[in-house]
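Figure S4 source data
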Amino acid sequence: MESFEAGEKKCISDVRRTFCLFVTFDLLFITLLWIIELNVNGGIQSQLEREVLHYDYHASFFDIFVSSCSFFCI
């Protein structure tokens, strides 16, 4: 009887575990894509300054990265 009760108790549900994996891989994938995009467009340092400090909605992927980070933190 004790082994049956121990088997029923889960620390994290399957749905929550799947959601956490999805959010983690989403953050990693978006970060990798943003780094590749920064490097292709003329160097990471100058592009970071342009995309973060001189933010333009039409030409920056910084908002996508921030939304992915906030989704990960929730």
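Figure S5 source data
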Amino acid sequence: MICPVRYVRRLYHAIGPIAQEAARRHHVPMADRQLDARYLKGPMPVLRAARELRSIAPGTRLRVLATDPRAVVDFRDFCRDAGHALISWSEVKGVFSFTIRAGGAKQEAAAKEAARHDTAR
């Protein structure tokens, strides 16, 4: 009989190169911050992400975990409208993972425009 620990080690070493090659082909960018929005429905995952994105510097990556299937469309539209970049998204066993790069161009432009209108009055 084979010891379970030895069996797992053999299996790991046998699968290791295959998993490493798959990881190289399907590289998912690492995130600087992570937000767990699993089991939230409707707009809540996007609203939580929006709050988190307001508090981080432009260019910082945020990884959001969500279970709502509608979140795919919600995050795509949110990133387009808010000026953030949806770098990647994936789904594994019902959990969606979104990697978003915080943008600042639209937010900064809107702030400058608002400041210009305030000084003109």
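Residues 22-26 have pLDDT under 50 and may be disordered. The domain at 29-120 is CATH 3.30.110.40 (Translation Initiation Factor IF3).
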